[in-house]
Amino acid sequence: MDREAEFRELYEAHRDAVHAYFTGRTGDRWAAADLMQEVFMRAWQRLPELVGRPASGQRAWIFTVARNLAVDTYRHERTRAGAEAALGHEPAAAPAPASAPVIAAERVAVVGEAIRQLPEEQRVAVTMSAASGLTSAQIATALGVPAGTVRYRLSLARRTLGAALAAYDQPAGTAEER
Amino acid sequence: MSLDDTLAAWAATVRLPDAAAADIYQQIIMTPAPGGEAFGGLGRTWWRDFSAGFAARMITSTRPVPVPWAA
């Protein structure tokens, strides 16, 4: 297999997970795309180190780079934190009345806003699980933490998200009872 | 709509579109990689051959020209 084919295989295998990781960290899929590109650029430049490793070894290597990059980026961006926070916490769109697609879209917005407000560790875990389909064990390899820790974070996150949806559903149910 | 369904719908809104992923891939592979083939499809031995040829020409062109009165 030539170099480009090897890289394509690596890229296709891990891009969703890396993008989901950075989306969880930044809350912005386009900023996440830029960071993902930087990670895979490094992988491209050091491909011989990665080829021949098992998928879990490749994932560990890639996410070590990703975590370091996230830390570096955080340091550089810290002075812009106020503006970033302001941009990142725009309120969800005002709810429109009632059709099923609108309600579904509102529920997605409610979950999105609840995810944004999760503690970062939970947000990253739930984003990687939902957006890239990784198992708890695979997320654990990527993050360098025990699988039980990932399961715990996911459990806490799901509890919070479930509560957010229940709170959204409650007024509608109350209104129907009147 | 269950929590899992709602999460799946939310995930679709944050996932990187395939076209964007393909663009990123193209940008990466257009970058020369150390030890790999040079940009533009040049062969692996291009730089070595070029350097060797250049060095040989430099040596030849800077060699003192023999002059009759120097003998």
Outline:
The complex is a heterodimer of chains A (178) and B (71). Chain A has 178 residues and is mainly α.
Structure commentary:
Chain A is an all-alpha fold and 178 residues long. The radius of gyration of chain A is 19 Å and the shape is elongated. Chain B is mainly alpha-helical and 71 residues long. Helices cover 58% and strands 0% of the residues of chain B. Chain B is built from 3 helices and no strands. Chains A and B meet through helix 1, helix 2, helix 6, helix 7 and helix 9 of A and helix 1 and helix 2 of B.
Instruction: Say how many strands of chain B there are.
Output: 0
* Helix/sheet category of chain B: mainly alpha
Q: How many β-strand runs of chain A?
A: 0
Major sheet summary line of chain A:
none
* Mean pLDDT score of chain A: 85
The total of helices of chain B stands at: 3
- Radius of gyration of chain B, CA atoms, in whole angstroms: 29 Å
Termini separation of chain B: 100 Å
How does the helix and strand content of chain A classify structurally? mainly alpha
Strand and helix order of chain B = HHH
How much helix, percentage-wise, in residues of chain A? Answer: over 70%
Low-confidence stretches of chain A: 90-96
List keywords for this structure.
heterodimer; A: 178 residues; mainly alpha; 9 helices; B: 71 residues; 0% strand
How would you summarize the topology of this molecule?
The complex is a heterodimer of chains A (178) and B (71).
Chain A: H1 3-26, H2 29-45, H3 47-50, H4 55-77, H5 81-88, H6 100-116, H7 120-132, H8 136-143, H9 147-177
Helix pairs in contact in A: 1-2, 1-4, 1-7, 2-4, 4-8, 6-9, 7-9, 8-9
Chain B: H1 3-14, H2 18-29, H3 46-62
